[in-house]
Amino acid sequence: MDIKEINRLVAEESVFIKNIMQEVDKRIVGQKYMIERILIGLLADGHILLEGVPGLAKTLAVSTLADIIDAEFHRIQFTPDLLPADIIGTMIYNQREGTFIPKKGPIFANFILSDEINRAPAKVQSALLEAMQERQVTIGDTTHKLAEPFLVMATQNPIEQEGTYPLPEAQVDRFMLKLKVDYPNKEEEKEIINRMHKNEAIPVNKVVNPDQILQARQIVNQIYVDEKIKDYVVDLVFATREPEKHNLPDLNDLIEYGASPRASIYLIRAAMANAFMNGRGFVSPEDIKAIGKDVLRHRIILTYEAEAEEITQEDIVNKIFDEVEIP
């Protein structure tokens, strides 16, 4: 398929994105960045790790999108006493039949909000992440496929670390995007009060269905990615591993481990989804820059020296994007 045909197809099929955003605006004030990134994760078939203080409409954002897309939504509150079976399900005994039957857990939905994932012990985190990766769950002797589309948005509270179990780096790497969500501004906060102070439900219309999302994914996979864009992505990722070879010798003592090959794959996939959302059939360097920080920020492990100097992953990623040449 040539680039003109892809452009035409994307322009036609991406119209529903605008409709979704219009419906979301009825219920949620601001937070456009978070909503767009959730849609990118949905279109690129990747999961999202979100860091933000309580009360920033994280649950409302996911449940609202589920309403608009006519998909099933489940919220799981992670606690220290949670068991893997509480997420994936278990076998229960049917006394009348004298047999064991599977009871499916809350993981069986299209949208999953894993609230405060770092509050649950490692076994529970692993059970969730395995389901995310394999898109299936085994209960007893039977393997059950998870619904499609399937999106997990896990949240972490950055201000309260007591009694938490930090996610291992290998598990964090399985999330396509890590978002940092901030407070609304004064105008947005006032509008939130105007809409929410009466505690009345705000209706939204169902403007798309799960099958249309799956169809959109197929079109996203056809978006053109030039070889120069791929080279740009490889340069960005290798700059996290070998900064001195990319004119960034100052970062050499600040980065313990750079981004994995999964970062390169996710950068391309997320950029393709970003191009789709903007009605384009090709990936531009601006798509890589727009989504790059969200893909890379949780994949760079800092040295003790960087932590002592209070240098963050955000600082490292900004320097890399400033230095690596744009094609």
Query: So, the CATH homologous superfamily of the largest domain?
Result: P-loop containing nucleotide triphosphate hydrolases
> Could you say which overall geometry the principal axes of the C-alpha atoms support?
globular
**CATH fold descriptor of the largest domain:** Rossmann fold
Runs in which pLDDT lies below 50 for 5 or more consecutive residues are: none
Task: Name the structural class.
Answer: alpha/beta
- Give, in order, the helices and strands: HHHEHEHEEEHEEEHEHHHEHHEHH
Largest sheet, strands/sense/barrel: 5 strands, parallel
* Spatial separation of the terminal alpha carbons: 24 Å
Oligomer: single chain
Please give the domain count. 2
**Strand elements, count:** 11
Q: For the largest beta sheet, what order do the strands appear in spatially? A: 2-5-8-1-9
